[in-house]
Amino acid sequence: MVLCAGLFSNVACAAEQRSAVDVIPAEDYALYDQTIESVFLTSHTRLVVIERMTVARLLPDRTEPVTIESVQDRNYFLGRLPADLVRDFVGANRKAGRLEGRFQFGVRYRFVTGQLLEEPEVSAAVPVQAGGAAPVQALPLLERLAFSRVGRTLQQDQALVYVEQMRPDGTGAGFLVWFHREGQAWRIFDTEVVWTIRGGQRP
Asked: What's the rounded Cα separation, in Å, for the pair 191 and 139?
């Protein structure tokens, strides 16, 4: 733990602590990669667009973070999720985190913030036009994915992540993905559809 002395040091220390909380652990990207590969990738996928910031809610028309009560009320996975997994998932998603260029799912990808594609930060990214960021519509958008932060059991043998896909036509879906650890590897144990939007519908 870093000890801070003086007013300015305290301010700087608090800023460092906040930024550390916002960082997504490197080991979480293996779960994100597996989710993309198993749920979304097809042989035709050439570009994946990923929201830079994680989401803290489970429904696209809500702004409040997920709560233990909301998970219990909706009885996801028929209520089989371990209580400590739900608690950690909810706690991890009290605030958004910033995703970095650590994905390794084998397809080119770009980060998006709002309606702007960011400058590429990964070698697999496609080049942007001169002048910086380009509108999302400027490139063929095959997927637009947003992830939650990852929750884990106390024994680190199960994990839970939320992912949603929004398509250019306004349709999409959100999923909870439940992982179990087998040795040193993670595998998807089960998935549940949280919401869907078909043409002209609300989630």
From this structure: 30
Report yes or no on whether pTM surpasses 0.85: no
The C-alpha atoms of residue 11 and residue 22 are separated, in whole angstroms, by 17
Query: Could you read off the pLDDT of 118-151 as tens digits, one per residue?
Result: 766 444 444 444 444 544 444 444 568 999 999 9
Q: Could you read off the pLDDT of 34-74 as tens digits, one per residue?
A: 999 999 988 888 889 999 999 999 998 888 899 999 999 99
3-state secondary structure (DSSP) of residue 28:
helix
3-state secondary structure of 144: strand
Contact 133, 112 (CB under 8 A): no
The residue with tokens 């608090």 is 14
Three-state DSSP state, 146: strand
Identity (one letter) of the amino acid at 101? Answer: G
Task: Write the CB contacts of 46 (distance below 8 Å, at least 6 apart in sequence).
Answer: 107, 108, 140, 142
Q: CA nearest 76: which of 96, 58, 95?
A: 58
Q: Are 149 and 54 in contact (CB under 8 A)?
A: yes
Q: How many CA atoms lie within 13 A of 29 on its CB side?
A: 14
**CA separation for the pair 70, 22 (Å, rounded):** 24
